[in-house]
Amino acid sequence: MNYEMGKIDIAWCPGCGNFGILNVLKRAVSELNIDPHNLVLVSGIGQAAKTPHYLRANFFNGLHGRALPPATLIKAVNPGLHVIITSGDGDMYGEGGNHFIHAIRRNPDVTAIVHNNMVYGLTKGQASPTSQLGFVTPIQVDGVFEEPFNPLAVAVSLNASFVARTSIHNLDLSLNIFKQAIQHKGFALVDTFTPCISFNKINTRKWYEENTYVIDGSHDPTNRNSAFSKACESYPWPLGIIYKSPAKLSFEENLYIYKNNNKPAINREVQWDKLKSLIENKKILSPG
Amino acid sequence: MPQMPSSNDISIVLGGEAGQGIQTIEQLLTKILKLNNLHVFATKEYMSRVRGGSNTTGIRVGSHPLQAPVDRIDLLIPLDKNVLPRLQHRITEQTIIAGDREALKTDLNVIDIPLKKLSIEFSAEIYSNTIALGLILALLKTDALIMKKYIGKHFGEKGDKVVELNIRAADLGFKQGHKLIENGTVSFPELSISDIQNDIMINGSEAIAMGAIAGGCQCITSYPMTPGTGVITFMAGVEHDFELIVEQAEDEIAAINMAIGAWYAGARAMVTTSGGGFDLMTEGLSLAGMLEMPVVIHLGQRPGPATGLPTRTEQGDLELALYAGHGEFPRIILAPESLKDAFYISQKAFNLADKYQVPVIILTDQYLVDTYYNIPPFDINQLVIESCVIETDENYLRYQLTNNGISPRGIPGKGKGLVGVDSDEHDEAGHITEDLELRVKMVDKRLKKLTLIKESVIPAQIYGSSDSPTFVISWGSTNPIVREAVTCLGNKDLAQIALQQVYPLPGNLRHILLSAKHTIIVENNATSQLGKLILRETGFQIDKKILKYNGLPFTVEELMHAISETIS
Ligand SMILES: Cc1ncc(C[n+]2csc(CCOP(=O)(O)OP(=O)(O)O)c2C)c(N)n1
Ligand code: SF4
Ligand SMILES: [Mg+2]
Question: For residue range A80-114, what is the model confidence (pLDDT) as tens digits?
């Protein structure tokens, strides 16, 4: 499969972690043999959200914060498509926070890769919901004092289907997790640590290397309580699969139209006969 | 005040607290009247509460089709004591009031029907509603057998006991009514009947929802907000039969973005909301403009700003619909006037959205979605789903620059091409661009579609002579009320111009307006939003305005009065 765009002008700073995410994502879809024609990349707005422009596939680059609602319905009306969301921490956890909560509850079979650089890159360095305490920016001049958003703990609390974290400095782990997330049936969240070399001088590649560790086999990702404590760990942050909720039905599987019939909604036709009788039923005919 | 002829119809008002069961009487009464081959028109006026308050339902019964509310009350059935003071201004010497004199505590002349006492033998006060139903049906000289049969059907599922008690209660009321006719206390004009057995009875929400289904709608995503909710509720009720995806979104922002995603992937989708929810959708509306994605939005207006009067009506959001969304892009705004038009216009909305790749707004209001009356059944044989989705080839470009501005719309997975869309300014392939020459081409391309759209606008309808010196202009749900008022005034120098599309405005409008000596605009808002739009689009300044914005629709008499004052 060819996912290469050819010669294009990529708008990221040289050395940005987004390049690593893009490459790992390409490898993941390639190793999983996903036809670009059946793949839709969905994003909001931000540096991370430009990813769909750099990988040859269908794409829906919507509004800031609003990647999840269209992604959910793209999958729902045509479940044969693979839907992958690639967006930033501000996009998914800030502007789109409400959708984040409700997409987890809805559980569409889509994969959300969040490029978490703990900063707003595109708008030049303001705090994001995941910025750490004390992070100084041109707006947060005294440093961030709001409690940082913990996407993994929120996801586990909502009994999310698949919750993982990786850091792009660890390419092998990232590839492995992306592939598992894409293959997972149901909503899969991959919070991906990535350095913004221009606007986050604190959380650098070296910082991620020093402040993360890979979870070993002793963690049972199907145990929600231990998943919750894993999700709450910091300094160092755990990387790996935090939580997988046991066999949940996806949003599409819960939809009545797919209970006994796989035909995508987009191919369903107007039931003219039923409409005729629906109209007929409004006639209020005399009983007996 | 000019009186309207009342020999052809009788106006009944039922009033009571929420939860007192006036809805049940209304449901039964309207259906039984229709079974008696009488035309029925019902309109609600409800408070925004689930219990208590004071709600009324107005029902007009007649020998010809009825589509407008009147002030006149021929028969008033107050079920609690708050109804009379509230309706005082509408009660005249001709109004017959029938009810529990003791409970009503009034000096007005009330025909005493001791509902409470009478219902004691039925062990529950709720039967007093059924007694009242029987009373009304007798006063209107309808058939007792039809009444009993229908009550039997209506309560059938609740068991024989309930059926029997209700029939007995209705019969009791019917006998009381009969007595009042026999002793000459009440005498309503004889209504002639016409064969309307084939007619259907629906409300505005149902008409829109059925139209959407007939328009190929496969998916509705919305967040509840009165008066938009009726449409999604109806569609949810039939989602299994019609294989629909019905999803209650977390907010209106999600709802519209979901619908846009659904269209992108190849489905026909809609959202339904009211002003506040539409406000939240405006960025999504702009997204549809940029992505050139079709989307259908039902906007049921209620009085604002902010939460306003949640259960009342207004035509106050025309400018909202017109100007919502940042940036410049074309849109279509339709404003059906009746149940029939609500159906066909909703159906058409999906084809228009698909054809021009623009947002289409169906602008209704609380009054229209809640009105309920009989109309001939919809003819669905002529309806077609005009899908413009193409199968793509390897070189497919979603935003290919074409002469008319419309780029053929492909969907993911259908054909050999890839489909990319971007809310940033984009190139022909949908990729983000900052090429400013291309920017200009893309803006022109999007705006060019408006020229095409103008070719298929619903024309302005003239009722009366097209060379009348005076025209009364109105739009949407207000049209039929103006029409009846103008007809009743019987002034040959007066005609109506009725609009059912408010953007783009019909091409024939300017021409018609220029031929008039005097123009009067009637709008259910405070600032004459259509008048301002007409001025902007045609340069034509309308002379006089008749505006109403207290949360209620116009009535026929009110308009007859206001129009004759205005022209004299
Ligand atoms: C409604 C709206 N508000 C604000 C913006 C401006 N904006 C664009 S991207 C962004 C934040 C980006 O941060 P993040 O999602 O973390 O992405 P990053 O650039 O860091 O990858 C903001 C505030 C916008 N485009 N739309
Ligand atoms: S600003 Fe930061 S996130 Fe954006 S491209 Fe540069 S390094 Fe990457
Ligand atoms: Mg960021």
Answer: 999 999 999 999 999 999 999 999 999 999 999 99
Q: How far is B443 from chain A (nearest CA, A)?
A: 18
How far apart CA A130 and CA A188 sit, in angstroms, is: 19
Q: Write out the residue range of the structural domain in which residue A41 sits.
A: 17-261
Q: Whose CA is nearest to atom 6 of ligand 2?
A: A13
Residue with the nearest Cα to atom 10 of ligand 1?
Answer: A46
Q: For residue A121, give the CATH number of its domain.
A: 3.40.50.970
Report the DSSP beta bridge partners of residue B383: none
The ranges assigned to domains in chain B are: 9-182, 201-375, 389-456, 461-567
CA gap A218, B324 in Å, rounded: 55
- pLDDT tens for B322-374 read 999 999 999 999 999 999 999 999 999 999 999 999 999 999 999 999 999 99
C-alpha A43 – ligand 1 centre gap (Å):
11
Q: What is the Cα B500 distance to its own chain's centre?
A: 12
Asked if A69's CB is within 8 angstroms of B257's CB, the reply is: yes
pLDDT at B23 over 90: no
**Is there a contact between A283 and B200 if contact means CB atoms under 8 Å apart?**
yes
Instruction: Out of A13, A86, A91, A131, give the residue to mutate to test ligand 1, the one with the largest number of ligand atoms within 8 Å of its CB.
Output: A91
From the CA of A197, how far away is ligand 3's center (Å)? 11
8 A C-beta contact, residue B203 and residue B371: yes
Predicted pLDDT at B116: 84
CATH of B461-567, one of 3.40.50.920, 3.30.2310.20, 3.40.50.1110, 3.40.50.300: 3.40.50.920
Residues of A in contact with B377 (CB under 8 A): 279-280, 282-283
For chain B, say whether A40 makes contact (Cβ under 8 Å).
Answer: yes
User: For ligand 2, is residue A196 a contact (CB within 6 Å)?
Assistant: yes
| ipTM score over 0.90, yes or no | yes
B373-389: pLDDT as tens digits: 999 999 999 999 999 99
The C-alpha atoms of residue B354 and residue A78 are separated, in whole angstroms, by 18
Q: Find the angle CA(B24)-CA(B28)-CA(B29) to the nearest 5 degrees.
A: 110
Beta bridge partners of B42: B59, B372
**CATH number, span B9-182:** 3.40.920.10
Output the average pLDDT for chain B: 95
